[in-house]
Design brief:
about 350 residues, 7 helices, alpha/beta, 8-stranded parallel β-sheet
């Protein structure tokens, strides 16, 4: 009995020792795992901080360089602008667009506040460049005289009012359509390819840009339809009210707009600010030269981020912005039918005025 009791005591002691060793090993392993996790977190935080610091330094320096270049052009131009002034402004536009791409690709590690402040800086650079360009370069404007339109209505009372900008080859990289209402305006490839198209103060117009512009900017439009081919760089719009837009572009920025529907192809993340009731669906405009224009614009047709929209007025990452909606189960519009309806309504209005 004594021998059996001694053997049991030895076994119990051995079991307790094994149990204690197992607990110590487990505790040591848990502690090591904890230290490894903390070390990984610190490394990630270090990389994140280094990335943010590098971005801030790079973005700030590039912004400063662009601002200084704009100021130098204004100081050096004086009364006799150099012959290559237009090229300088085209290069500045490209630099701003490259900086916009840099911001877009860096949003994954930037705070919403940082993204918004950088976007404001880009907007300021764009405005400064546009103001300087308008002041230093003669801008060819394409307007339509109200008297001429009235004369056309009297001569052809039952014909739809169709306004087309001059079809001669472009001599300037900047085109403007301004102060139009109830007009069907069509610009073809030779009139828009590679150019910066600006549209302002239009009401109840049906506008088609059948080509590959360099950029498109539209301001103050109401109850209009804008159909556009692939844009090489950016589409910027502000103060759109009850409009319909079909646009393919590299970057989209929409400001101060409401009750507007956008059929979109965008290769970067779309940005909206101070907007509400914005509906978004996939781009579906079509015309005979569309495929060739995609190739010429170098826009990536296979990459469309139309579902990825950053709302700078809605910073909650967990709740979807109430200011824009992705359309679902929505029938694609028939642009040819809408065009016919528009021309028919214009024709009726003209007949009624006579």
């Amino acid at each position: 009995m004594d021998n059996e009791s001694d053997n049991n005591d030895v076994l119990d002691a051995s079991a307790r020792k094994d149990f204690m060793l197992e607990r110590l090993n487990k505790r040591n392993k848990d502690r090591q795992n904890y230290l490894d996790v903390k070390l990984e977190q610190r490394n990630k935080e270090t990389l994140h901080n280094e990335g943010v610091d590098f971005f801030a330094q790079t973005f700030g320096q590039r912004s400063y360089d662009i601002e200084q270049r704009i100021q130098r052009l204004q100081l050096e131009s004086g009364d006799a602008p150099p012959p290559d002034l237009a090229q300088h402004f085209a290069e500045i536009t490209m630099q701003i667009q490259e900086l916009q791409r840099y911001l877009t690709t860096s949003t994954m590690f930037l705070s919403d506040f940082k993204i918004k402040s950088c976007q404001h800086m880009l907007n300021a650079l764009t405005s400064a460049s546009d103001e300087a360009r308008q002041r230093l370069l003669p801008k060819k404007k394409f307007g339509f005289s109200g008297k001429k339109l009235a004369a056309k209505q009297q001569q052809k009372p039952l014909q739809p009012k169709v306004d087309v900008v001059d079809k001669s080859p472009a001599k300037s990289f900047n085109w403007t359509i301004a102060n139009e209402s109830n007009a069907h305006i069509v610009l073809h490839g030779a009139q828009v390819n590679g150019l910066d198209i600006t549209i302002s103060n239009v009401h109840k117009c049906f506008i088609e840009l059948q080509g590959h512009p360099g950029s498109v900017q539209i301001s103050n439009a109401s109850q209009c339809t804008l159909l556009c081919g692939p844009v090489a760089r950016s589409f910027f719009a502000e103060q759109l009210e009850r409009c319909t837009v079909a646009i393919a572009c590299q970057q989209l920025r929409l400001h101060s707009s409401h009750a507007t529907r956008i059929y979109l192809h965008v290769t970067c993340r779309a940005i909206i600010e101070d907007c509400r009731r914005i509906d978004i669906d996939v781009y579906n405009y079509d015309y005979p030269e569309l495929e060739a224009d995609y190739a010429a614009s170098r826009l990536n047709k296979s990459q469309n981020n139309y579902t990825d929209v950053a709302d700078f007025n809605w910073l909650s990452p967990d709740v979807a912005s109430p200011n824009w909606t992705l359309l679902k189960d929505h029938a694609a519009p028939n642009w040819s039918a809408l065009r016919r309806d528009f021309l028919s309504s214009v024709s009726k209005d003209d007949a009624a005025l006579i």
